[in-house]
TrEMBL record:
InterPro entries: RNaseH-like_sf, RNaseH_domain, RNaseH_sf. Residues 1-106 form the RNase H type-1 domain. It comes from Araneus ventricosus. It comes from the Eukaryota. This is RNase H type-1 domain-containing protein. The lineage of its organism: Eukaryota, Metazoa, Ecdysozoa, Arthropoda, Chelicerata. GO terms for molecular function: nucleic acid binding; RNA-DNA hybrid ribonuclease activity.
Length: 126
């Protein structure tokens, strides 16, 4: 986003068994990867409304593969920052992200097939 204009956007459908946390981490991963491709040393801030994905991506001890990748990209690109914002209060970028997520969630076509969260796999197979 630059001055309330989307410069890049992405959305995808996950399986019904994937978690919100996985979806949030993947979305953050796509944003971090995109920000890293920008040829600038100017500060880049990614606003995120999911604290768990921020915490996982900010921890050197994270065991989640996607969060680990986020952490490493952020470490290599110190000009990229992640900042938490409250959700559903009218922030333009957050509302734009929500409007992209809704049709993807309602779609019948899975576009990303990622591993189940360990907690879900344990519940499903016990």
């Amino acid at each position: 986003m630059q001055e309330n204009n989307a410069t890049h956007q992405w959305s995808a459908k996950l399986t019904k068994d994937n978690t919100v946390f996985q979806a949030e981490l993947i979305a953050l991963n796509k944003a971090v990867k995109y920000a890293a491709t920008l040829k600038t040393n100017l500060p880049v801030t990614i606003f995120v409304d999911n604290r768990a994905s921020i915490q996982a991506s900010s921890s050197p001890k994270t065991t989640n593969r996607t969060a680990r990748e986020n952490f490493e990209i952020l470490l290599e690109n110190p000009h990229i920052k992640i900042s938490w914002i409250k959700d559903h209060v009218g922030y333009f970028g957050n509302e734009a992200a929500d409007s992209l997520a809704k049709p993807a969630a309602e779609s019948n076509d899975v576009q990303l097939d990622i591993k189940l969260a360990k907690c879900h796999a344990k519940i499903s197979f016990v």
